[in-house]
Design a protein that fits this description.
With 188 residues, this protein is an all-alpha fold. It contains nine helices and two strands; from the N terminus they run ααααββααααα. Helix 3 runs antiparallel to helix 5, helix 5 packs antiparallel against helix 7 and helix 7 packs antiparallel against helix 8.
């Protein structure tokens, strides 16, 4: 850090109390700084994964409410999307799994965008981690239902499962590798 440059100036906020709306003391300044700063690749990677999951789960939701026939995949052999997406396991707690996947994907997109990764509240990170764990647990249950109970696989469902596990890994590593803003400033 350059001589005479405060940590507030380093974060792009100017000196504390230097203008209207600027923090007046260290307590206010802390509220504006991110809770954690992840490696640069984490917000971009997690956002891309979430966008792909939203697209795939949107397609599965469309297929659920129209007809399984719109799914462009095999209906014979081990890969049978129609059988999987219309089975008894295609609902969880009375709700279509495709809709739950879409809601989860959109929620994770909100929690994994670059701005959310730099949120001041530590609760955003906690909820993001909880969401990724919840998604991974749901995927394990769905893969069990597909492979053991149904003995069939849906390739579009599998894509969402792969994206969910990939997002779980990125969120866990991104959270573990993140530094606190004070640590980041000390290394500059």
């Amino acid at each position: 850090m350059a001589p005479g440059t405060s940590s507030q100036q380093k974060l792009g906020r100017g000196a504390a109390g230097s203008g209207p709306g600027d923090p007046e003391g260290p307590e206010d300044a802390t509220a504006l700084t991110p809770a954690i700063v992840p490696p640069r690749w984490v917000p971009i990677t997690s956002t891309i994964i979430c966008v792909l999951a939203v697209l795939d789960s949107s397609y599965l939701t469309y297929a659920h409410f129209s007809s399984a026939a719109v799914l462009a995949c095999s209906t014979k052999g081990f890969v049978d999307c129609a059988l999987v997406t219309t089975s008894v396991y295609s609902h969880f707690l009375g709700l279509p799994v495709a809709v739950l996947g879409l809601v989860w994907s959109v929620g994770m997109l909100v929690l994994c965008n670059p701005w959310a990764w730099r949120a001041a509240s530590p609760w955003v990170g906690r909820i993001r981690l909880l969401g990724s764990v919840t998604g991974a647990v749901m995927v394990i249950w769905l893969m069990y239902a597909e492979l053991v109970k149904l003995r069939h696989l849906c390739e579009y469902c599998t894509l969402v499962h792969i994206l969910t596990i990939a997002l779980f890994i990125v969120v866990v590593f991104g959270t573990a590798l993140a530094v606190h803003p004070e640590d980041e400033l000390a290394t500059d």
